[in-house]
């Protein structure tokens, strides 16, 4: 290195007066020159150095909260649970934008006739199922290994994340559903979607969340496809009998999820 910073350059940089290309040139030199770094150290005002360290510590110790965490804080969700909920991949903005795009395409397709209605009634109930699939699990959740090694109840975390992702996806799907051409379709998907989520939660007692969600989605798709091929329409599936069946499935699954095993055994003995 054939040149070094003179006293004026050191004082100017230490005071924060060097900007633009000059500051970049000084910083590049300091990275490779120990003598100039040694000369700079006593020239930096203590207050400026303390302020810089305070800013670094604040960013490390208190990282910027995501929009999910800020929203949950408004509902008085504890900060530690808000951080766990926000880590769910299906609550990330990119995932929600992709989901909105798929649903918007399906809603637009309803203007094209029965095939479009089939597409929407297939995808709309599966949106919450997809959200649940991305809520928790090995290979999906970036905090999976950490939460598995902590005493935080895994079932509670799953239920909290499911509640958050289902609520978000239902709001998004409902907003898109308002744009469909058929008013009946606007509400016909809602109860079946909740029944599918209930099935995923019930099956997650024995299967991973992802496997349960894929199994439920495949069964639902197969059922709608079979009805479409035989009837040429899927409207009958979503009429009153179908809605009652969906409600019964939802209630049964919630009992499996929330009623303790000992209570279920007692009920079976009584019956």
Q: How would you describe what is shown here?
A:
By secondary structure, the protein is mainly alpha-helical. The chain contains 15 helices and no strands. It has 2 domains: 7-61, no CATH class; 76-270, no CATH class. Helices cover 73% and strands 0% of the residues. The longest helix has 24 residues, at 154-177. The chain is elongated. The model has no long low-confidence stretch (mean pLDDT 81).
Poorly predicted spans: none
Q: Report how far the terminal alpha carbons are from each other.
A: 89 Å
Overall structural class, as computed from helix and strand content, comes to mainly alpha
Tally the helices: 15
Return the domain count. Answer: 2
Label the overall shape: elongated
Tell me roughly what share of residues is in helical segments. Answer: over 70%
Number of separate strands: 0
* Mean pLDDT value: 81
Strand content: under 5%
Secondary-structure map:
Elements lengths: L6 H8 L5 H13 L1 H7 L5 H16 L5 H8 L4 H8 L6 H17 L4 H20 L10 H5 L5 H24 L5 H6 L1 H14 L5 H23 L8 H19 L2 H10 L1
Helix pairs in contact: 5-6, 7-8, 7-10, 8-10, 8-12, 8-13, 12-13, 12-14
From the structure above, extract its key features.
2 domains, 271 residues, elongated, mainly alpha
Summed up:
With 271 residues, this protein is mostly helical. 73% of the residues lie in helices and 0% in strands.
């Amino acid at each position: 290195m054939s040149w070094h910073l003179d006293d004026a350059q050191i004082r100017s940089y230490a005071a924060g007066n060097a900007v633009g290309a000059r500051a970049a040139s000084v910083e590049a030199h300091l990275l490779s020159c120990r003598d100039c770094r040694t000369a700079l150290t006593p020239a930096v005002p203590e207050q400026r150095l303390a302020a810089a360290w305070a800013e670094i510590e604040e960013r490390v110790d208190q990282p910027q909260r995501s929009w999910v965490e800020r929203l949950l804080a408004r509902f008085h969700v504890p900060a530690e649970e808000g951080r766990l909920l926000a880590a769910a991949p299906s609550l990330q903005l990119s995932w929600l934008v992709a989901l909105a795009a798929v649903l918007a395409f399906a809603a637009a397709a309803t203007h094209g006739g029965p095939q479009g209605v089939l597409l929407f009634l297939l995808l709309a109930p599966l949106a919450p199922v997809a959200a649940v699939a991305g809520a928790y699990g090995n290979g999906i959740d970036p905090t999976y290994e950490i939460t598995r090694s902590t005493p935080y109840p895994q079932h509670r975390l799953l239920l909290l994340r499911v509640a958050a992702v289902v609520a978000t996806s239902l709001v998004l799907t409902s907003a898109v559903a308002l744009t469909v051409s058929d008013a009946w379709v606007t509400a016909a998907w809602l109860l079946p979607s909740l029944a599918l989520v209930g099935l995923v939660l019930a099956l997650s007692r024995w299967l991973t969340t992802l496997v349960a969600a894929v199994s439920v989605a495949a069964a639902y798709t197969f059922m709608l496809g079979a009805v479409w091929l035989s009837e040429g329409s899927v409207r009958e599936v979503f009429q009153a009998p179908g809605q009652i069946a969906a409600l019964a499935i939802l209630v049964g699954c919630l009992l499996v999820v929330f009623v303790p095993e000992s209570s279920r055994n007692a009920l079976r003995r009584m019956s």
